[in-house]
Amino acid sequence: MRVSKSHRSNRPKSYKINCAGCGKEVVVQVQPPQDKKLLCMDCFKK
Fold this sequence. Notes:
It is a single chain. The protein is of the alpha+beta class. The chain has one domain. The protein contains two helices and two strands; from the N terminus they run H-E-E-H. A hairpin with a 6-residue loop joins strand 1 and strand 2. The chain is elongated.
């Protein structure tokens, strides 16, 4: 089964970041700001 290009473009873009607390790689759906340190959910809950 082929997927049309228009169907693939409807998917949100994913961005890989590293958690500033533990270094774990996390995938987010929004482009992270360049000047901010982000945390994974585990570190955020601490």
